[in-house]
TrEMBL record:
The chain crosses the membrane at residues 38-58, 113-135, 141-162. This is ABC transmembrane type-1 domain-containing protein. Residues 1-18 form the signal peptide. Keywords: ATP-binding, Membrane, Nucleotide-binding, Signal, Transmembrane, Transmembrane helix, Transport. The lineage of its organism: Eukaryota, Sar, Alveolata, Dinophyceae, Noctilucales. It comes from Noctiluca scintillans. GO terms for molecular function: ABC-type transporter activity; ATP binding. Residues 1-218 form the ABC transmembrane type-1 domain.
Length: 218
């Protein structure tokens, strides 16, 4: 509810700004305005200023509440992990993760997943409200604009997916190169004794060339 209200307050700013700009344009062109129009423009200006101040306070309170909820969830998860590790010492001795590793590296990402799920849940509400707000201003012109946004988002997601695949290939090839380097450093005396330095150097250079090639493709 707080996130939705924050989104609704954010939509009010451009709506009020549209009325303020119309009022300002009429004032700059020295267009004669009626008393009601002048009063409406002044009210929009004061409403925009009041909304900005209220948003500053409201956003800070929402952020504070989110941090407090995050802290409580984090404390609950850490307490659950500690309780499980204390009451199941036999399982811990069999090879389960250490308490420190779980608390340091697993609790934070799990909390992030919870907030991502909440954002996904309220996304249809925010999208519907945004489309309705735009529809009140541009009517059915919102449809081609929305389709264009979806098309670009699809292309962006596809490019991000391809970038992730190429990045994975680059890291895999980098591991191969670093593995060869580590092996050569470990057995440097053997390589010198058997005169295998040139062939091994060629393997490292070939691995580096492959890595740079995949990096250039990315």
């Amino acid at each position: 509810a707080l996130k939705v209200s924050q989104h609704l307050l954010g939509l009010l700013s451009p709506l009020l700004m549209a009325h303020v700009l119309v009022f300002q344009e009429a004032q700059n062109t020295e267009t004669q305005l009626g008393q009601s129009e002048v009063a409406w423009g002044v009210n929009c200006v004061f409403a925009l200023l009041a909304l900005g101040l209220f948003q500053m306070v409201w956003n800070s309170q929402v952020q504070f509440y989110s941090h407090r909820v995050n802290l409580r969830i984090q404390s609950a998860l850490r307490g659950t992990v500690l309780w499980h590790c204390v009451t199941n010492r036999q399982e811990q001795q069999k090879g389960t993760p250490q308490v420190y590793n779980v608390l340091s590296f697993d609790v934070g990402p799990n909390i992030d997943i919870i907030f991502v799920v909440l954002d996904v849940w309220i996304f249809p509400i925010n999208l519907t409200v945004t489309l309705l707000a735009i529809f009140t201003q541009v009517k059915w012109a919102v449809v081609p604009g929305f389709i264009t946004v979806l098309l670009f988002e699809f292309v962006n997601g596809l490019l991000l997916y391809m970038d992730g695949r190429y990045r994975d290939h680059v890291y895999m090839q980098k591991d191969v190169r670093l593995g060869l380097c580590a092996e050569s450093f470990t057995h440097i005396r053997t390589l010198q004794m058997l005169d295998w330095t040139k062939p091994f150097e060629k393997q490292i250079l070939d691995a580096r060339a492959t890595e740079l090639g995949r990096q250039s493709v990315r």
